[in-house]
Design brief:
Elements (H helix, E strand, L loop, with lengths): L1 H15 L7 E3 L1 H11 L9 E4 L7 E3 L1 H18 L6 E8 L2 E8 L6 H4 L21 H11 L3 E5 L6 E8 L19
Parallel strand pairs: 2-4
Antiparallel strand pairs: 1-3, 4-5, 5-7, 6-7
Helix pairs in contact: 1-5, 2-3, 3-5
């Protein structure tokens, strides 16, 4: 119930414009690392494949909100994927954009439902009982759009589903202000 109320509050804040990202220079590796520590029990039984190059540029984003996006994507993937199936998290930089993908080997989301999975209260029909409110992916969309990015789902042949979000990167911080190791103070 607490999770449901928190999701509703997040949705109201996003829609009303009250929730403004507190953008700081972030390393996507750091965000993913925090999420994986936080979800280590939840991820039990799902082999993980991580592909995040060391040389990715920093992104100006709200660390806590980006953490929430990746948590929501992973929790959604776990709900709909078969037990013991692999989950992958990858990131790459292309054309002034950071792309982050969470992929699973679950049942492919039908084409006609892909456009609705980010709608509020929308839930896929599943053969197994799946708990939730249908707000997690909608909250992801709101957070990503508040950062000037976009989010989508596709189903490549090698995976069941691939959730990808993009974040714009137009500049990099001065070396004197921040280091790649995640320091948030002057060096």
């Amino acid at each position: 119930m607490n999770r449901f109320v928190a999701n509703l509050l997040d949705m109201v804040r996003l829609e009303s414009g009250i929730l403004k990202p507190n953008k700081q220079w972030c390393d996507i590796q750091d965000i993913v690392g925090v999420v994986l520590r936080e979800l280590q029990d939840t991820l039990q039984g799902h082999p993980l494949r991580i592909n995040i190059p060391q040389d990715l540029p920093l992104v100006k984003a709200d660390f806590i909100l980006m953490e929430q996006v990746i948590i929501n994507l992973l929790e959604n993937t776990i709900k709909y994927s078969p037990p013991d199936s692999e989950i992958s998290i990858s990131a790459h930089y292309s054309d002034k954009t950071l792309l982050v993908t969470v992929a699973d080997r679950g049942p492919v989301i039908p084409m006609q439902e892909r456009e609705h999975v980010f709608d509020k209260f929308y839930r896929l029909h599943s053969l197994k009982h799946v708990s939730g409110t249908g707000l997690g992916l909608s909250i992801c969309k709101g957070i990503i759009e508040a950062h000037g990015g976009r989010i989508w789902v596709d189903s490549p042949s090698e995976y069941g589903n691939r959730f990808t979000f993009s974040l714009p990167i137009s500049e990099q911080p001065s070396d004197q202000l921040v280091t790649k190791q995640g320091a948030d103070h002057a060096v």
